[in-house]
Amino acid sequence: MRRLARSLLCLTLPLALNACAQPAQPAAQPQAQAARTETTKTGTLRIETVASGLEHPWSVALLPAGGFLVSERPGRLRRIDANGTISPPIAGAPPVFAQGQGGLLDVVLDPDFAANRRIWLSYAEPGDNGSAGTAVATAILGDAALSDLHVVYRQLPKLDGGMHFGSRIAFDANGHVFISQGERNHKAMAQDLEVLQGKLVRLNLDGTQPTDNPFAAGPGVRKAIWSYGHRNMQGLAVDPRSGRLWESEHGPRGGDEINLPEAGKNYGWPTISDGMDYATGRPYPETKGRERPGMERPYHAWPKSPGLSGMAFYTGHTRSPWNDSLFLGALADRCLIRLQLDGDRIVSEERLLVDLGKRIRDVRTGSDGNVYVLTDEQDGQLLRIVPPAR
Ligand SMILES: [Ca+2]
Questions:
Q1: Bridge partners of residue 364, in order along the sequence
Q2: Cα of 9 to ligand 1 centre, how many Å?
Q3: Catalytic residue among 164, 186, 250, 317
Q4: Which domains does the chain show, CATH number per domain?
Q5: 239 vs 236: CA distance, rounded Å
Q6: How far apart are CA 374 and CA 49, in angstroms?
Q7: 202 closest CA partner among 145, 263, 148
Q8: What are residue 177's phi and psi, to 5 degrees?
Q9: pLDDT tens digits for 241-300?
Q10: Is 164 in the active site?
């Protein structure tokens, strides 16, 4: 009866329509295609606003038929048309722990998305008594709703607090999915193979654990683990040229790094680190230097932490001056980092969107040769970055 009365109210009192609307819906109007330019060392790039009004957008997936899927950290998934029209929240997303760094995190398309319409989501999943843990679910994308939602991975144990959930998802060409995570700010856990904090994990696409994972045969260890000793990985991508997996992670002050994680290897946190405690300016008590036998040095490190989030290779665009680059979003340094590659070798760094001055949460590269970024704000934006002409 109350629902009927509410419906009648909505029908009969147009001025009350706002009270009947779904919460947190931005105006579904295409954004003005405001463009600005920036002079860079390879020419002039153009910054176009695809959409605004996104609440702390975390990840963007480019749909093959045009348009985008965007996750908002408070727990909403939205479709954005090629012209910038933002949909209402897509129904059926999993409930999330939207506190601190937690919430709805990565959204990526299944490798066979064109045929199966399946998407993958990573998020902070609420547990008992205020606890949470990183989780990954898959679902079928419909026009307005998800269906066939399955949770395929849960970081265990679940813990209190809102820090260091990771998390990104990437696929190799051999039927595996990689899931990056954080150590939930429990540093020692990153070295403990009986828990999943601070681990990169590898699963089969059906969520089962590969029998050839490096710790699959060991007793008392988590068989999903691919590599360990990680702090908080918010970038993960496979180089389409080599098939090699790269990850970026937030270190402590001066400890942000890139690794090419290999099976069973220990990436050192917190026992080795280039970084310092933000509070004291000194190494953490757990840190015993910058290198140690059996632990991997960073493949690449920054003496001043940019705050890395989101990572994408830009390859196969031989007419672009950006060909063979790795892009990384920078939160603290408020820019887009471009690393010029020669094979696996990082030969130079260029900082883009510096004048824009926004926290960059995610970056993806399009088959159209453009680069797409999300700004991490209450009124976040999806931007299209058009590279300089060669
Ligand atoms: Ca490390």
A1: 372
A2: 59
A3: 164
A4: 39-371 (2.120.10.30)
A5: 10
A6: 10
A7: 263
A8: -115, 135
A9: 999 999 999 999 999 999 999 999 999 999 999 999 999 999 999 999 999 999 999 999
A10: yes
